[in-house]
Specification:
23% helix; 52 strands; alpha+beta; 18 helices; nine-stranded mixed sheet; nine-stranded antiparallel sheet
């Protein structure tokens, strides 16, 4: 992997305690006001060196005489002895490719001997950063120091007392170019103009090892630390003053902890005048008022863009309008008219929408008109120049690595839960699937889906395909045997509990708990009720019903139904590609177990469960149960699918007074990927129940997210307010005001789910905007989320100026949620290129990707030959014959025209950007359709700050390649009438220059980059 330059600042922060509290949901993912996604690792040292973050970067204690002792202030702490040379090591990958690093920790110094290290992190003794609490031979006191091959930086020393607890804090804030240290939340030193490449300190490749020590120096002949330690934390964000002071005061219990309290948003983004019109709004003269209609009880769908009138021959097809976003539907509870006033950022223009509220009529929602092709009917090809596409490159990274995986590793925690012996060579997965982690088993579900998709997609290599066939058979065989143990006596006539509602607490326990440790986990599978299967016992499901929240201790849970959804989906995927009946039997058994438990729960409990932050995240359980119903025709599964309705979000309340069903935005401020799969499930419910509300819920949600919450890559989350990178912003259409979190924008798996929703909606409603979004997301997020030389992939993708992507899990041995969905995304990249009508009379060509479609129902093969997007044309060759429609997508960005020839003859067509063009005739073998859609450059602005914009060339997001980190937005000036006049480069390589700055596709960007720019027109 390439090494890229970064700049470093070390800062430690003091704070005020003013906070903004948002109670979007209950839970404790927010630790001391800081979103957990910002936390790399946390070591409390209260009896072990376990990492208490969800990243499982467990530390190792070195030295025989290090002990855990009782402490008057912190109950139990670790005591390191210098004489015994005891210290702690942290896994090397903890600091790989991070943008910034902040470190806090409590220390009770037992010796004033010079040269002791609180921590020392780096490649070696010539490239490292450390804190010494006692100073050096020449400088006494607490100070921080950076040593590199070229430069050395240090802070001024500050004296700390021995035999007294103090909190030392350091922040590596890359863009700020400063080094600061703080003692007990108070600034003690600042060194400015620190310019250093971070890769001079830390190795970025996972194959190379950093040395991360607590209590030991990387320098030879230095004394070991003689001190007591407590609560050592590493963050991937530059903590601000308020955050570190809050950590300090919370630890001393000077404030009572408020669950899910979030501090005020980080306001370090550049502030622009709200009165100054930016970008094209500077040339806007007027904008018309509009009229819309709606039905009683349902909020109107207002167009986010209206065609305005501009001066100086500026030709802009749309003007962004920001409308108020009511939290209920009180404005439409009576027949009549009312007026809504919108705003246009930076201007005094106030467009009005007159809304006519009509009598409600029978709701008309679309039927499913299209169907997908099986994965084995579509194959990816090299481009028209004979080169592998990015699609093939990413597919091969994942499929080839998947082929080398050991299924027993993915079965390890299932066998562990059922108390079974592990086969030789089996090793547990790490990260969120390790022994104590309450989400363990989630990666196994993704793995089941991935090997099913890989099997269906590898007809090009029969030996490879056979490997996936064997893996599927083995996985299902083991899971089936385990599932058959649940709720049945261990020995004939033995005690057991077959009823899922009567599962007792574990042996020797008075209540349920989530203890999964080697000594604490229950393995009495005979008491778990028939049909149960998971990588942990049923306690978490029961605890959730009783009100348990999300967290790490044994009274907390972590999204049990989320994990179950992955497993069920994977089993059904295997059943549908291979016909494995055991896979279906396992799914049916688990579905029945869930149905029996859900049947006893009142609506109030269900509402509480599904509104519980993270703990109540159920993935797409409604989708899985509806799908199981469709496969089996057993209505019990459809009943339990309805039990997973998120009533508050879907319907407003138990009386169904508003919610998304009536076009009310009920998801602002909520955890994005907790809720997007629920919407996917609602559409699946519509497919199987024909309840029109489910379609409206899905369609309204899609429209709102893509118009009011979307970043240019296609991601839809990343909030500063609420201060959690995994949440939707607190107010629609305020990405600049409330978004662009320092922790990154959008979990990659949220885009995975948005693409799934988009694809499924298109099967019902063939709007061009749906597949326009799909194209955006797959090129600029999914393809862009994979590392250059391995299947490592992103969790969050940062979009601030001078950001760099962080990739993980190259060897498929430790999965976050996004590592899991990446397995699925990259083994089905061909799944939405083509769709067919239910009656096989029409074909939809959605994406311009080199590929071959085997339309077996028509005995027709369609070969698509193109170098798109490095060429702005594609060729469709028909092999076979017959009369049918071919509907080709006219992209929204194709404003310079869309041209069609058939067998070399130019066709007269009316092609409108953002729609589909229908070509219908009796096709002959060898017919060739050529489509040409000239690319052009265009800007896409942040809705509430127009000058902050991304640059696109056709469908491709172009990122400015940065040589170093930066605090400010990258500024460019473009020609107002034709921005292409300001840009030079080669369309065939998709490399362009503005001045001396190189712009490349984001999906081919692996170093520092700027996706958003500060654009000025002249």
């Amino acid at each position: 992997m390439k090494i890229y330059k970064l700049l470093i600042c070390l800062t430690v922060v003091f704070t005020t305690l003013n906070t903004t509290t948002l109670y979007a949901q209950n839970g404790d993912q927010i630790l001391d006001g800081i979103g957990e996604t910002g936390l790399i690792a946390r070591y409390i040292f209260n009896g072990n060196t376990k990492d208490w973050s969800r990243n499982n970067l467990h530390a190792t204690l070195k030295g025989e005489k290090a002990t855990f002792i009782n402490d008057a202030l912190f109950d139990k702490v670790i005591s390191l002895s210098a004489e015994s040379e005891s210290y702690i090591t942290i896994p090397s990958e903890a600091v790989n490719n991070e943008e910034s690093i902040s470190i806090t920790g409590w220390i009770n110094l037992q010796s004033t001997k010079h040269g002791q290290s609180f921590f020392d992190f780096g490649k070696n003794n010539k490239s490292h950063v450390f804190i010494t609490p006692t100073g050096t031979k020449n400088e006494t006191g607490f100070l921080a120091k950076i040593v590199s091959d070229t430069k050395t930086y240090k802070t001024k020393p500050s004296t700390i007392e021995t035999n007294k607890w103090v909190m030392l804090s350091v922040v590596l804030d890359i863009p700020s170019k400063s080094m600061r240290t703080y003692l007990n939340g108070v600034l003690v030193s600042e060194t400015k103009n620190v310019e250093l490449e971070l890769d001079q300190l830390f190795k970025s490749s996972t194959s190379e090892k950093n040395k991360l020590y607590i209590g030991k120096s990387l320098l030879a002949n230095q004394p070991y630390l003689n001190a007591k330690l407590h609560d050592f934390r590493i963050y991937r964000i530059p903590l601000n003053e308020a955050q570190i002071a809050r950590i300090y005061y919370k630890a001393l219990k000077q404030e009572d902890k408020i669950v899910n309290e979030r501090e005020k948003k980080d306001d370090d983004l550049e502030v622009f005048s709200e009165a100054k019109p930016q970008l094209y709004n500077e040339y806007l003269i007027s904008i018309p008022d509009i009229e819309v209609e709606t039905v009683l009880g349902t909020l109107p769908r207002l167009p986010r863009y209206i065609k305005g009138i501009y001066q100086d021959d500026i030709k802009i097809s749309k003007t962004r309008v920001i409308w108020p976003a009511p939290i209920d539907n009180r404005n439409v509870l009576k027949i009549g008219t009312y007026t809504i006033t919108g705003t246009i950022p930076g201007t005094n223009l106030k467009p009005k929408a007159t809304v006519s509220v009509k009598e409600k009529q029978t709701s008309k929602t679309p039927n499913q008109k299209l169907d997908v092709f099986n994965l084995d009917q579509v194959s990816l090809n090299t481009d028209s120049n004979g080169h592998n596409t990015k699609f093939i490159e990413n597919r091969d990274k994942f499929i080839n690595t998947l082929a080398t995986t050991n299924p027993d590793n993915f079965l390890y925690m299932f066998r562990n839960a059922f108390g079974q012996e592990q086969p030789q060579g089996a090793e547990p997965l790490g990260v969120w699937d390790s022994q104590d982690t309450k989400l363990r088993g989630h990666a196994t579900g993704h793995y089941l889906t991935a090997i099913a998709q890989a099997y269906a997609s590898t007809a090009y290599d029969k030996a490879l395909q056979a490997k996936f066939s064997d893996k599927m058979e083995y996985m299902v065989s083991v899971l089936y045997k385990l599932s058959q143990l649940s709720g049945k006596p261990k020995q004939a006539g033995g005690k057991h509990e077959s009823d899922p509602t009567a599962v007792p607490p574990g042996p020797g326990k008075l209540d349920y708990d989530s203890d999964l440790s080697e000594t604490g986990i229950r393995t009495d599978y005979w008491n778990w009720g028939e049909g149960f299967i998971s990588a942990y016992p049923p306690d978490q499901f029961i605890m959730l019903e009783k009100g348990a929240k999300y967290g790490t201790d044994n009274s907390k849970v972590w999204a049990p139904y989320y994990t179950l959804h992955k497993i069920l989906a994977g089993l059904m995927d295997i059943y549908e590609v291979s016909g494995n009946e055991k896979a279906l039997e396992i799914a049916k058994g688990m579905g029945s177990w869930v149905h029996v438990r859900m049947q006893q729960l009142p609506t109030e409990t269900l509402i509480s469960m599904w509104n519980t932050y993270i703990a109540g995240e159920f993935g797409g359980m409604n989708e899985a149960m509806a799908r199981l119903f469709r496969i089996t025709k057993d209505k019990h599964y459809l009943e339990v699918a309805q039990a997973f309705d998120n009533i508050d979000m879907f319907f407003g309340d138990a009386n169904h007074t508003h919610g998304l069903a009536k076009n009310v935005d009920t998801f602002r401020g909520l955890h994005a990927n907790q809720h997007i799969p629920q919407i996917v499930g609602a559409l699946e419910m519509y497919r199987d129940s024909n309840v029109s509300d489910y379609f409206h819920i899905s369609d309204n949600f899609w429209y709102k997210t893509t118009n009011d919450y979307m970043y240019s890559i296609g991601g839809v989350a990343g909030a500063r307010n609420p201060n959690n990178a995994e949440c939707f912003i607190s107010e629609p259409a305020t990405i600049y005001k409330n978004g662009l979190s320092a922790g990154g924008q959008n979990e990659t798996c949220a885009t995975y789910n948005m693409l799934k929703l988009t694809k499924n909606l298109f099967l019902f409603d063939q709007r061009g905007e749906l597949m326009d979004y799909y194209e955006r997301g797959i090129y600029n997020d999914i393809l862009a989320s994979v590392a250059e030389d391995s299947p490592a992939n992103t969790y969050h993708i940062p979009l601030r100026a001078g950001s760099i992507k962080h990739f993980s899990n190259p060897d498929m041995k430790g999965f976050t949620c996004c590592n899991g969905t990446a397995l699925e995304s990259s083994t089905k990249l061909q799944n939405s290129i083509y769709f067919k009508s239910n009656d096989n009379k029409a074909l939809y060509v959605n994406l311009y990707i080199p590929s071959t479609l085997n339309w077996t129902e028509k005995n027709v093969i369609i070969e698509q030959k193109t170098a798109f997007p490095k060429k702005d044309n594609t060729q469709l060759t028909i092999k076979g014959k017959g009369k049918f429609e071919i509907n080709v997508r006219v992209p929204h960005w194709a404003t310079k025209g869309f041209f069609v020839t058939i067998n070399g003859k130019k066709q007269k067509v009316d092609a409108k950007p953002g729609s589909y063009l229908t070509l219908c005739r009796k096709w002959k073998n060898g017919d060739v359709i050529e489509l040409s859609m000239p690319f052009q450059f265009h800007l896409e602005s942040v809705m509430d700050q127009q000058n902050i914009a991304s640059l696109f060339y056709g469908p491709v997001l172009l990122a400015a390649q940065e040589s170093e980190s930066r605090k400010d937005w990258h500024k460019i000036t473009l020609d107002a009438k034709d921005i292409s006049k300001s840009i030079e480069g080669n369309p065939e390589t998709l490399e362009f220059y503005i001045g001396d700055v190189l712009f490349k596709p984001f999906y081919e960007t692996y170093g520092r980059n700027s996706v958003y720019l500060d654009v000025k027109l002249k």
